[in-house]
Fold this sequence. Notes:
- This protein has helices at residues 16-28, 89-104, 173-176, 190-201, 234-248, 252-261, 284-290, 357-370, 375-381, 391-408, 412-420, 435-465, and strands spanning 2-12, 33-36, 110-113, 116-119, 124-127, 133-143, 160-161, 167-169, 182-186, 209-212, 217-221, 276-282, 296-297, 302-305, 309-312, 315-318, 323-327, 342-343, 346-348.
- By secondary structure, the protein is an alpha/beta fold.
- Strands 1, 2, 3, 4, 5, 6, 18 and 19 form an eight-stranded mixed β-sheet that branches. A five-stranded parallel β-sheet has the order 8-17-9-10-13, with helices on one face. Strands 7-14-15-16 form a four-stranded mixed β-sheet, with no helix packed on it.
- The chain starts with a strand and ends with a helix.
Amino acid sequence: MTVVLEADYLVVGAGGMGMAFADEILSHSEASIIIIDKNFSPGGHWNYAYPFVRLHQTSTCYGVNSTELGGDQRDEFGLNKGCYELASGREVVAYFDNVMRRRFLPSGRVQYIPMCEYDKESGTAKNLVSGEIYEFRAKKIVDSTYLNVTVPSQRAPTFDLSADAKAVAVNELPRVAPYYDNFVIVGSGKTGMDAVLFLLSNGIDPDRITWIMPADAWMFDRFTVDPGRKFSDPVTQYAIGILQCALEAENYRDFYDRLAGRELIVQLDSAIKPTRWRCATFTPLELEQLRRVKNIVRMGYLEAVTNTEMKLSKGGHPVPSNAIFIDCAADGLPKVPEVKVFDGNRITLQTVRMCQQVYSAGFIGNVECNVDADEDRKNELCRAVPLPYLEIDYLRCALKNTINMSVWLTEPAVVKWINESRTDLFSPLLDFDDPEIAANIQAMGELIQQAIPKMESLLSEGMQTA
């Protein structure tokens, strides 16, 4: 049986990005929305995340604009002490469910259909439980699944495993931890770091941990990106620091050395230059804990495991006795080609501010509703910032971030939204009537214009030497 549904917008995906976009449509228009999702509950990949996961950015700036997440409080104890609180995975899932049940559905303008697989070719969806087919008549189709976030529990390990070797997704770590003497963490990204911290915080001796690290990555000190609404706040000074480092840098390598010298980026081991960057944030206390692990295997990617040996792309390494391999290596932010955000009746949600996917979706929703302009202008305001992977991507993202900000300041509807947005991390309150703030804004604008050509030059140099 085929059911025909009509609405102004068809939003494919009820993850954070789809929800943030839909929230802006509800807030700034009278439009109707159909949200379809392959999952059983709103929240996207959060439904499958490991049980000890937490946000790597503050709760105060995550989620949809209309609904607060957390209590806008700083942690008073633990490894995040002094920073704004970080919601747990369970809190995030409950939050998106709450937004759906208490805001979206009661509006009378949202239809939510979970457990549906969308076919982009036919434009129809099939209910994975009942088999019912849905046909849609929508003015615009919004793809919130383009970035396709994946977590380890959603796919099999990428390395071969002999019958006598043991491996589990990171989700299983709390369950299996009591039964093994040693732990091999596979993956050097945020998930791998979280797994190491989980073991250490539960009293596991660091000598019992072996960490497979294909490549070191640059990280943020979470205190430097703590949210604030004044030019004197750390996060604004962080943004200014990037521009100043670019202007002062003698060459590409010197740019990163200056960032590290100001502790705007940090590294796990000062003796090893990172070659990656994945937006991970850590406090000094967390970094201190991670550095307790000395059994770090930097021999490339893990390819195969037996009970006694692990084969890596750059050689072999013995397996500790009674060890369990913890798979943390899913590519949570896979690289995808940049496409136009606005393209006829299709809107493809992408990151328009560095490392802030959900914020970006809300930003795009505001442009859709409140910017009275043609498609070219909307795309100028919504230039995609690439997802980070290699070290050079930090500069590439910072450059595009800076270009975007210079354009945003020319659009009143965007400035107003940034000024009022709960989820905005960086931007100060733009009260142009305050002489001091106006002067700071003008100085920031001038710094941006000076830094852009220098950053372009540094990026060109880095691409030639990479």
